Amino acid sequence: xxxxxxxxxxxxxxxxxxxxACMHRIHHQYSDTKDDPHSxxxxxxxxxxxxQYKAYLRIQEALLKGDSRMxxxxxxxxxxxxxxxxKNLSWLPYLLHGALAFFITxxxxxxxxxxxxxxxxxxxPIQGWMVNALAHRFGSRNFEIKDNSRNNHLVAxxxxxxxxxxxxxxxxxxxxxxxxxxxxxxxxxxxxxxxSLGILKINRKHI
Length: 207
Fold this sequence. Notes:
Blueprint: H1 2-13, H2 17-29, H3 40-43, H4 47-64, H5 68-71, H6 83-86, H7 92-108, H8 111-122, H9 124-134, H10 153-158, H11 165-170, H12 186-196
Helix pairs in contact: 1-7, 2-4, 4-9, 7-8
């Protein structure tokens, strides 16, 4: 699985897997404090949009320089920052998926089909903002924990369950975001399908 992520992760979304993992772990460690890379408590709801991008670039640069403060956080991930990011070619995945979106548009005669494909694959800045900003400001809480994470059903609907941030922050190593019957978590269903195909193995702790 790790080798697969190293080879394909950056091409699937344009995001480097190791950099993203490092930023996500920092977010959990310092959630909604001044050291959180993307908290609406610190940056405001709209400030998260730019804040998460700047934090990602800072963390990636630190990893490329071998900064021990960052490399120690992801020391268990046995690969480096991906080739496209090491070589400043992070625009290539966007070009690739833009070309595929154009092909879909021309083949089906539908602009919206191509746009839907491109935004679904490369819309992570929007999705990340929804989760990091809205699901840390609006919603309910199943667990009283120190940060401001919330369970936002609308965000969860658009981002395959990840809007259940309060659940996720209470059980950060749990593959399933939902804990109640009325919390729809299609992302976990995809994980079950992937596991049945031998692509991954689910950690069933707390499930």
